[in-house]
Records
---
Amino acid sequence: MDAMTVFHAAHPFWVWLAVAAIILAVEVGTGSGWLLWPAASAGAVGLVSLVAPLGLPVEVALFAVLTIATTILGRRYLRPASASDGPDLNDPMLRLIGHEGEVLTGFVHGHGRVFIDGKDWAAVTRDGASPAAGQRVRVTAVEGAVLTVRAAPSGG
C-alpha cells in the first residue's frame, strides 16, 4: 500500500485515470448506466490533479462529490428513450406502420396479400373492405406476421 501512496504522490493523474478506466470497464461489462458517472468523475479528478495536485484526501472527497452530483444530474436530465417513443428499431415489422403498398391479390373475406417495401406480406382489413388487386393500401397495424391495412388516401 505504501508503494501505491508513493506512486499517487508522484503521478496522481495516472492513478485517477486508471480508476476511471476500471470503473468504465465494469460499466461496459454490465451495461447498467450507473457506473458511467463515477468513471467520468474519476477522469475529472484526474484532470484536476494534473493541473493542481490536491492530495489524496481532498481528491477522494472531490471524487465523491462529483460522483453524487453527476449521477443525480445525469439521471434527472439525461433520461433514456422509453419504449413508447416509437417502434422498436429491432422489429422491422413495426416500422412498416404508415407505409403504403399495392394489393397483389384481391382480398376475400378481409384477407389478402400486399406488396410493401419490396416484400410480399399477408394482410387483413378490419373495416370489412375488400381491396382489389392493384389498389394502394396503407399499413395501420401489425399483428404477428400479418399486416392490417386500409385503402390509401387518393393522391398519396
Note: The mean pLDDT is 85.
---
Amino acid sequence: MTHIIRPIEIQDLPQAYGLLNDLVRHENIGNPLKLTLEHMEQELFAPNADWDGLVAAKDTEIIGICFYSFANTSRPMNSTPLIYIDDLYVHPKYRRQNIAKNLLKEITKIARQSHISRIELWCVKTNSHGQNFYQKIGAKKLEHIDVFRLNVDK
C-alpha cells in the first residue's frame, strides 16, 4: 500500500478529527474529546497557532495523524527545546505497514532541521501496544518523572 506523509491541510480536518475521536475511544481512559473541530482549526491554522500536524494519506483518505508542538520543558537540564508529540494514531485497518514509523521519521527530520535533539511523547499506561512500539523503535521510558496536572478554573 502506498501512502505519503505530509503536513496537515485545512481540508484534512474532518478526517483527522475523526481519527482523534477514534484515538480517545482506543485509549479508553474515560475522557471524551474536548477539542471541537472549530477549535482544532484555530489551533492549527490561525495566525497565532502553536500546534502542528502531519498526516499519512492514501489518495484522499487520511489514515494516520501526528500532532505535535515545540516546547521548552526541562530546559535547564537540556541543551535544546523539544518536540512534544501530542497524538500519534493510525487507523487500525492500516497498522503494521510502517505508517506510524514513517510519521515519526518525518518528525525526526523536522527536529534535525530545527536543531532540536529531543522528541517526547506520553503514552497511556494501559496502551501496551503503543509502549511496545515506542520501545521497539528505540524510545526510552523516562523512569525519573511522573506527570502531575494542576487544573485552573476559568
Note: The mean pLDDT is 87.
---
Amino acid sequence: MTAGALTRARVAVFGGSSGIGLAAAAAAASQGADVTIVSRNPERLSAAVAKVPGAVAASVDARDAQAVMAFFDGRAAFDHVVVSAAEAQAGPLRQGPLAEARASVESKFWAAVNVAHAARIVPGGSLTLVSGMLGSRPSGGATILSAINAAIDNLARALATEMAPIRVNCVSPGRIDTAWWDFLPADRRKELLDRTAATLPVKRIGQAEDVARQILSFMTNGFMTGSVVLVDGGGAVV
C-alpha cells in the first residue's frame, strides 16, 4: 500500500477508542484519511484522538440506533466505515445470566446492524465489520460470542449484495493482544497469550496492527466485497 492511499478519504471508525478500532483509525490517518473516531466512552475517546493526528471525536453509543442515525444524518457521506465496537463477554452460555448474553449481542451484533442500517457511504466506498475466529471455530467456552461472530460473518456477506455498489467485508481476527484481555490477571493473560503463540505457525501472538492492515486493504481494494478474511496467524490450520 502506497503512502497517501486514502488521502482526504472520510473514514469513521466505531469502537475506535481502543484495540483493533484504534489501530485501524491510526492506520487510515497515516494514509491521509480524515478520521472520525466514534466511541461511547468519553475518557477513552479523548485519549484515542490525542494518539491519532488530525482525528476528530464523536461520542456515540452504537447500541443506540437513534444515536447512530443522528450521527450519520448530521454529516456528509463517508468513504469508509469500520465497526469494531464491542464489549461482548466470553464464557459458557449456561454458566452466566441471560442478561449478560443479551448485553453481548446488543454490544457486538446489534451495534453492527445499527451502523449498517444508518450508514451513509459513497458508492464504491466500504463498510468493514469485525467478527472473530469463533465464528468459524465455535467453542462451548464462548458460546454466545461464537454465535455472534458467525452472525456478523454472514451479515457482511448478505450486506454485500444489499448495499452494492458499496462494498461490505468482514475481518475475522484470531487471538489478539489487546485490552480486551485486561479482565485476566497479568500472569494468566501472559500465560494464555504465550501458549497461543507457541501453537501458531507464525510463532507469535497477533497485534491490533495486524488486523488494521487487513481493514485498510478492504478500504483500498475496490475488487473486494462479500469477503470474510481470517487474520489468525494460521490458527485455522492447526
Note: Strands lie at 10-14, 34-39, 56-59, 78-83, 121-130, 167-173, 228-231.
---
Amino acid sequence: MISSVRGTILQKTSEYVVVDVGGIGFKVFVTSTTLGALGAVGDTATLMTHMYVREDNLSLYGFATDEERRMFELLLGVSGVGPKMAIGILSTAALDSLRVAIASGSTDTLTRVPGIGAKLAGRIVLELKGKIDPRSVAGREPELVATDPDVLAALTNLGYSVVEAQSAIRSLPTDASISTEEKILQALRYFAEQRG
C-alpha cells in the first residue's frame, strides 16, 4: 500500500492533483480542504494517502493531515459510503465539525451533504459514534465549510462535483441580501470564467 507521496505538483484540478514522484505521476484525489492547503503547480507537496483497491477500481486519495485520512478511513468503514462520498463529506463539513456532529449524535451536518439522506446520516453517526472521543470535541458546534448548503446542493444537482461547488461558493460575496438564485447564477459565472 502507498501510505504517502512527496513530490512536485504537475497538475492541479478541482478534484485531484498529479504529483511527480521520481518520474512517476501519481493522480491523487483530494478534499477541498487539502486542495486549499497545497501550493501551486511546480511546488513540492506531501500527502498522506489511502489506496482504494477494488476489482474494477484502483485509486489514490490524499490528505494534508493524518487526522483527515483517519476520518476518511472511518467513513469508508460505514456501509453505503464509498470513497467519492467520503471525499464529499470531508469537503463539505470541516473535520472538527464532523467529529462534533458524530460525537453528539447530530445528523444535521451530514444531511446537508449532497447525496446523504437522513437514513445514511443516521447510519454514519451510529457506526462511528463510539470511534470519536467526545472529550476531544467538547463544547464545539458543527459547521459546514460551505456557508450555503442550498447553493451546494443546486450545483451538485447540475453535475458539478462537491469540490468544484465548494470552490465556486468560496468565490461568492458574503452579502446576506443576495438570494440563493443569484448566488447560483454567480457560481455558474465563476465556472464559465474558470473555463476561459
Note: The radius of gyration is 17 Å.
